[in-house]
Amino acid sequence: MHELTLATSLVDLASSHAAQHGSRRIVRITIRLGVLCGIARSLYFCFKPAARGTPCEDADLRIIEVPLRVHCDACQQIKTPRALYNFRCPDCGHPAPKVITGREMELVSIELSDTDDARGVNSALPAAEEISARGIMGMAE
Amino acid sequence: MCTTCGCNHGEIRIEGSAEEARSRPDHHGHGSNAHGHTHTGSHHSSHDHDHHGDSHAGPAAGAPFPSGEAARSPNLVSIEQSILAKNKRFADENRSCWSELGILSLNLVSSPGAGKTSLLVKTLEALRAEMPLWVIEGDQETSNDADRIRQTGVPAIQINTGRGCHLDAHAVGHATADLALRQHGILFIENVGNLVCPAGFDLGEAKRVVILSVTEGTDKPIKYPDAFAAADIMVLSKLDLLPHVDFDASTAIDLAKRVNPTIRVVRTTVTAEGGIDEWLQWLRSMLREAVAAQAAHLENRLATVRSRLSSL
A11 partner at 20 to 30 Å CA-CA among B73, B123, B254, B296? Predict the structure, then answer.
């Protein structure tokens, strides 16, 4: 249920930035989610109802998933644990609770359709780690 | 509408005058930019701040992956801001308010029925002669828990979250305004019984406590890892029932340490004499830490004032 809180929070934040740029319509929202948040899929479902009647209504939600990386004090190196929530160094087995990446929950950028200085949208190809919102919705249906 | 913190949400209800504060004309509106906080309550009064101080223009400091997308489109606005920034600001405000008073603030999370309220009642009875205590109770409905706490003579405020599944920093800040906090006590915030949703919401507490009763599954720490990963201490409760249930305490502790290698563990039972002593000892040592931090903070401030004085 807290995914709806997060989705509404995201919609509020994105809408206020759009308003600051004199725009009433956002075409794309890019967010960064650490894998430990575990809400990527459910956020898509909550985003639609949360965005209804706001400048985010027709926006494509893109999620950049950030993998888990921890710091191993024994090896003095950044490592990728074998599984989520197994905070041990995959090489030496030492406990490694210092999370370097994996807990992110950030609004990266918004793409507007009608700013004052609009000169057309140059749509770029998605980056390797991006998931398409439509892709996930399609899978779920 | 601000759903991060519940303002104008129409769902969250706080007992007493804090609820009325929501409809006061001076109550802040989160929808506007760059506004001052104008609460009349004691909690927020000394913390005027700008909610939207963050600039949208550049990447946040320490952002692990700079987007570098700005060149792609003239309509692309780089933001780099936490989705929970609003809750974080309220949480930081709570934290600084409580730490300036040398208060130990605790956020208690568990599944429904793990024994949070029973543990609290016993704890309050044991400590109330030693230090000031306050309780904030979070439940979807009813003031049953706050009523039970008030019977011990300790002041308590109930927050009903309605359909909400967790407390947030804003509602908790309002609730403390009515608790008349003083120096050097313990503020217990009993979150809504839920091992999932409260984990991601900082209330501004100094320490997070997760309670696991022996009537639950041994593998709960790995089934609901977020709650255990975010906690400072795990309380194993209802230890007196251990002979009657299929619960392996040492495995449960191992699993909790797997998701959180630094988690501390104490065992409690509220039915036996001395059954919560280890927990009480931890509370006293944490209060001592809170007061020591306050002393260090005040000494720093005094040193700044003295150095200014000597230069005049």
Answer: B73
Does A30 contact B69 at a Cβ distance shorter than 8 Å? yes
The owner of tokens 């892709």 is A135
Rg (C-alpha) for chain A, rounded Å, is: 18
pTM to 2 decimal places: 0.76
Domain ranges in chain B are: 89-291
| A129, A139: one domain | yes
From the number of C-beta atoms within 10 Å of its C-beta (0-12, 13-18, 19+), residue B261 rates as middle
Cα separation of B134 and B106, whole Å? 11
* Fold observed for domain B89-291: Rossmann fold (3.40.50)
Q: Name residues of chain A where pLDDT drops below 70.
A: 1, 114-141
Specify whether A51 is located in the same domain as A6.
yes
Residues A74 and A140 grouped into a single domain: no
Residues A13 and A59 in one domain: yes
pLDDT tens for each residue of B153-198:
999 999 998 878 889 999 999 999 889 999 999 999 999 999 988 8
The pair phi, psi for residue B243, each rounded to 5°, is -65, -20
The alpha-carbon gap from B71 to the nearest alpha carbon of chain A, in Å, equals 10
